[in-house]
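Ticket 4471: requesting a sanity check on a complex prediction with fe (iii) ion. Repro inputs:
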Amino acid sequence: MSNQFEYPEDREKRNAAKIKALETLLIQKGIITSNSVDTVLNHFETKKGPFNGAKIVARAWMDAEFKKRLVKDTAKAIAELDDLPEGMTGAESEHVKAVANGDGVHNLIVCTLCSCYPWSVLGLPPYWYKDPTFRSRAAREPRAVLREFGLNVSQEIEIKVWDSSAQIRWFVIPERPEGAENMTEAQLVELVTPESMMGVALPKIA
Ligand code: FE
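Returned structure tokens:
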């Protein structure tokens, strides 16, 4: 992905070095402790991440009525599921809204203003999601951007771009891929990638 938006090769390495320096300074000044960052990272590794979204999407694939409820009132439908980690609610989960691919529509999420993202279902956004180039181009020429991600959306399919904000954070319910008809819910969970819930890829059977 690093070449797609003309990023310098060492961009991530440089950012990591900057963050390390900042963290060291904050610890030295006594503003945070060495555990603070680990605690936050651990939270996003175990409580809030794309593993939540994958469970929700797999359930929607198994249960058409659940899928309808998920689109209609996303937070309420998510609250029905009992196998999500604690801490899944809160952190603006009430603002999460799902849109479903299908019926001639492909959905793509973006935050044109900054980097609003449905943390509770997808975790932290990848760095390209925050990039001004992606944000402006996704709104202006989504079909071309998706092609660069390797996703050719046919001309007959309308592409809808959903702009996330502090009030609404979108995620995509992709379509269940062909060949997954007889899979169990646990197997389906494995097919749902974060990219497919952002709309820049489709779930595929490996
Ligand atoms: Fe934002």
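Notes from triage: The beta strands are 96-100, 105-110, 158-163, 169-173. Leaving this open until the requester confirms.
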